[in-house]
Amino acid sequence: SDHMENIYGYLMKYTNLVTGWQYRFFVLNNDAGLLEYFVNEQSRHLKPRGTLQLAGAVISPSDEDSHTFTVNAASGEQYKLRAIDAKERQHWVSRLQICTQHHTEAIGKNNPPLKSRSFSLASQGSANSPGLQRRPSQNAVSFFSVGHHRLPAGKRVPIMQPDHLVDVREMMSQAEGQQRDLIRSIECLPVSGHLTSLDQDLLMLKATSMATMNCLNDCFHILQLQHASQQKGSLPAGTTISWLEPKISLTNHFKNGAAQNFPAEINKPASVREEQSAAEPCQLTREPEEINPDEELEDICDDKEDDLGAVEEQRSVILHLLSQLKLGMDLTRVVLPTFILEKRSLLEMYADFMSHPDLFIAITNGATPEERMIRFVEYYLTSFHEGRKGAIAKKPYNPIIGETFHCSWRMPKSNVATDAGSNLSAHSPSEQVTLSRDLEGQTEMDYYTVKFVAEQVSHHPPVSGFYAECVERKMCVNAHVWTKSKFLGMSIGVTMVGEGLLSLLEHGEEYTFSLPCAYARSILTVPWVELGGKVNINCVKTGYSASINFHTKPFYGGKLHRVTGEVKQNATNTVVCRVQGEWNSVLEFTYSNGETKCVDLTKLSVTRKRVRPLEKQGPFESRRLWQHVTESLRDGDIDKATEHKRALEERQRNEERLRAETETPWCTKYFLKEGDGWVYHKPLWKTVSAVQTQDTN
């Protein structure tokens, strides 16, 4: 009773990008089980601006920071709130949870469970259809009767023994069958009428039931791990349990019938199937275009992706999409809603990873192989923060085959580090603007130029090639990436399959590297991005290597966006540098001489890329190709953006059809297939080698 008092006070409430966070006066009415808010305390006697029924709600502290939490009502409505500090958040969360539990149990007592039976739909033709008489306190689950199994009075639940894992497996199989029956029952509903298969509450039930089955399978696997550890001894102190991939076969579990049929609105239109033959690689037939850097102008676009308004307004569309997917499904051929798109192509996103050209050029200035490897690791870890536009997880445009992106950067030579103590610049944004203006009066001898080109070389599988070079410093990087995206329940995983090669021609060194996986988490609430996986960097000539681990948030304990790594001399297995921190915040480097250095990524200077104006770009260059989609998204016109996006896809289908009829293979413009990879047609290592040969002759 001490914890059931009414509480009130100011909290910040998030609405959308336009209004952002606003202070509102909140009142927890324990007697009524309501969370109400007002504009301010003086208007408390007026009608509340908003009210949430807490019965059946879920109160969730956020992983983003220690101040934020969400209240998810059974009706599907959500409040995203922020307290002034961690202590205040805990106070509100605990009181809200107590009130929620009290009123949820009260409803359970007033509505005893029905007799055990399978899921069955409520009467569809009744005038009391829940589709007509939905109340805020109702939940989609209340439309169904669920089988309950009670233990005899006084009987205690026995401790889980190894033999009981078999019983758990049988229960899981029964749950899978019931969930499958539930999905079929919902999809058998008519598409119009009082209660339809597109009802928002039913879509929520379908989506969350899939996530629940995934969670149950994770838990079952954890039980198996615990049993195995008990046989070898207890788990060591401080062990964290991470989210796991499902270890139980879910074959046909989410197939709604004999065949998987997706509605037209989520089927990806028949797109180009461009098969690149490894035995007979296609030679370049389209003449590559030489881009003049003097035609490029400093980029003035600054499209931050922090707007959640469209996502919140289109939540029913997201639910409908998720309800049709199954765990592990490849999303390459699934058309995602236009409103979750970033205002840039994936090819341009790869260019944004090069936003610190001073650090890139400084790699070759390292005096020793050890220093050059450390500088490369420092540059590599600082590139991901700028590659993301804001904290919200949105998806870049899928490049169409043949799409290209060109840009360059100019960096004053005085800003590029030469000694070991100054290889991470930290100009403020205002200083960086001054640097950009200073370039206007400088000659070509006063600055370095880094050129970048990217091309979508294949559509199925989706493979992108990109290349960057600094001719003055005789260094270049070539990479190809195949993006494989999968549905993981309440998140989406993207595996970056491929390899990159950094060439330092002044030193005759080559560094191979890979890219981490990316995950879009909490796709039903506030989507956010985290990186995960192990990345290796290796230089065969010098014998130095680096191992970098991007840690995903553990299921229990741990921090967000954590990264650790070390640089080794392979011959002696000596660690010459260690790094730890967050890839989007602060990194700490510890060197073999005992010195340490902290780098705040949010304060690092960002050099704006230079791009040609739209009128000078080719029809297949990213910004010109997607300009109408981008303009519509900036204007908030989702329907118009979808229309332009569909037109591009239709054009791609027609071109593919024509090539199929004429048996004309697709030929790339800038990249050639070599083995399993793609290489720029005129890499710097070839041109430098040719010049040296001529000089020798």
Automatic annotation (TrEMBL):
One of the GO biological process terms: lipid transport
Keywords: Acetylation, Endosome, Golgi apparatus, Lipid transport, Lipid-binding, Membrane, Transport
The keyword Transport belongs to this UniProt entry's keyword annotation: yes
Record's compositionally biased regions (Polar residues): 117-137
Region (Disordered): 104-137, 638-658
Protein location: Endomembrane system; Endosome; Golgi apparatus
InterPro entries given in the database record: OSBP_sf, Oxysterol-bd, Oxysterol-bd_CS, PH-like_dom_sf, PH_domain
Domain PH: 4-101
CC annotations in GO: cytosol; endosome; Golgi apparatus; membrane
GO molecular function: sterol binding
Family, similarity comment: Belongs to the OSBP family.
Quaternary context: Heterodimer with OSBPL9.
Free-text function comment from the UniProt entry: Plays a role in regulating ADIPOQ and FABP4 levels in differentiating adipocytes and is also involved in regulation of adipocyte triglyceride storage. Weakly binds 25-hydroxycholesterol. Interacts with OSBPL9 to function as lipid transfer proteins.
Protein name: Oxysterol-binding protein
Source species of the chain: Cuculus canorus
